[in-house]
Task: inverse folding
């Protein structure tokens, strides 16, 4: 009876868009992209870009301090610093043109030591925003020219192999870091897609359960409505072929016709809007009413269940057929769920009510002892019961009890 719970996973972070990279915002919120297709920069983007710019400038200033030790001419030193300054300014373009910036930094890395920070940031951005093939070619080219740079401009006070090892290790580390960031973003997007698919499947299952419940109700209402119209036709035909009938017989037949017409209109109101499907195997069978609840409880007891029936309805025959049939189906499904999900527990079926007050049906099971067996399901039974009660004009609530059991409670109209 413990119904399956459908879990929903949020697909976005509506209150924290500012904390997401613009690349993720573009995928999570396509409507926020600019008309040209470029995503809008978030507050996080501005903060990160400004930090990257400062980092490139800091690395450039550190490299500028050792230019005097390299015995460079004044013109070469000035050119090195100018190229480094332009490279630091180009860091602001890394999101828009990551491939172009990384390609431009390959020859720059041969000419300027102060552009080292911008070169590393361009490789990091390339690894984050572009597939691995771009990283392999451009990153490999950038690392390949490193030995040539240190051959032309040896590092003062550091052996050639040591300088080369540190530079290559730093470049590989930055590229690996970028690839890690890219993989984490792809993981987030894949989880988002899985969450969307799960929500769509859950919504389809719920709609299918509602449709099946409506179809079953439509078939049942078809049988009941056909019965009432047939009864009305028989009595109207009797009046037509027996014009000499006594006043008592005419009044009795007219009363039956009036009651049948009224009941048929009531049933017709319930069936309007319900899609009727093709006939199933049980079409044409007599539909159960509230009076059949005793037989349902007896069948459950014969199956080994501990069921207690507390019926406080003065005359079950006075309950409208549609209301009684709905109450029977709810009790039937609830007993089935209790037998599957809480075997061995005691189940109490309570039904009470009166004309004008409505009918209240409660099915409650105690807390199961020991480990509860896992029975796969989709929760469509409770969805169907809720739809059935709603179409009758009532409500249905279900959930765990404070004692650890489970309860299904339906309130149905009885006018």
Result:
């Amino acid at each position: 009876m413990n119904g399956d719970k459908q879990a929903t996973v949020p697909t976005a972070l509506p209150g924290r868009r500012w904390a997401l990279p613009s690349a993720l915002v573009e995928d999570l919120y396509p409507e926020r992209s600019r008309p040209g297709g470029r995503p809008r920069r978030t507050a996080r983007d501005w903060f990160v870009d400004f930090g990257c710019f400062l980092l490139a400038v800091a690395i450039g200033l550190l490299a500028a301090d050792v230019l005097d030790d390299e015995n460079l001419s004044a013109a070469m030193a000035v050119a090195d610093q100018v190229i480094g300054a332009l490279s630091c300014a180009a860091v602001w373009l890394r999101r828009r043109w990551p491939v172009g910036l990384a390609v431009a930094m390959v020859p720059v890395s041969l000419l300027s030591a102060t552009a080292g920070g911008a070169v590393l940031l361009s490789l990091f951005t390339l690894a984050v925003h572009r597939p691995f093939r771009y990283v392999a070619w451009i990153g490999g080219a950038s690392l390949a020219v490193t030995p040539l740079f240190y051959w032309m401009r040896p590092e003062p006070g550091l052996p050639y192999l040591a300088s080369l090892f540190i530079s290559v290790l730093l470049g590989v580390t930055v590229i690996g870091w970028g690839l890690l960031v890219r993989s984490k973003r792809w993981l987030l997007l894949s989880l988002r897609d899985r969450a969307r698919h799960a929500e769509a499947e859950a919504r389809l299952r719920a709609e299918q359960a509602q449709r099946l419940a409506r179809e079953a109700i439509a078939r049942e209402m078809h049988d009941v409505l056909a019965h009432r119209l047939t009864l009305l036709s028989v009595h109207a035909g009797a009046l037509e072929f027996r014009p000499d009938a006594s006043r008592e017989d005419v009044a009795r037949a007219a009363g039956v016709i009036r009651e049948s017409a009224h009941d048929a209109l009531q049933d017709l109101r319930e069936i309007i809007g319900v899609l009727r499907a093709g006939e199933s195997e049980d079409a044409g069978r007599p539909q159960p009413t509230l009076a059949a609840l005793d037989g349902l409880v007896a069948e459950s007891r014969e199956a080994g269940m501990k069921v207690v029936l507390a019926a406080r309805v003065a005359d079950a025959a006075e309950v409208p057929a549609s209301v009684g049939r709905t109450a029977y189906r709810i009790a039937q499904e609830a007993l089935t769920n209790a037998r599957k999900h809480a075997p061995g527990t005691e189940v109490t079926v309570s039904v009470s009510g009166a004309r004008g007050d409505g009918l209240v049906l409660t099915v409650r099971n105690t807390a199961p002892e020991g480990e509860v067996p896992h029975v796969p399901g989709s929760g469509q039974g409770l969805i169907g019961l809720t739809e059935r009660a709603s179409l009758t004009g009532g409500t249905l609530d279900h959930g765990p009890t404070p004692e650890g059991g489970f309860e299904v409670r339906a309130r149905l109209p009885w006018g």
Summary: Strands lie at 306-312, 346-354, 358-365, 395-400, 406-412. The two ends are 30 Å apart (CA to CA). The chain is about 60% helix and 10% strand. The first strand starts at residue 306 and ends at 312.
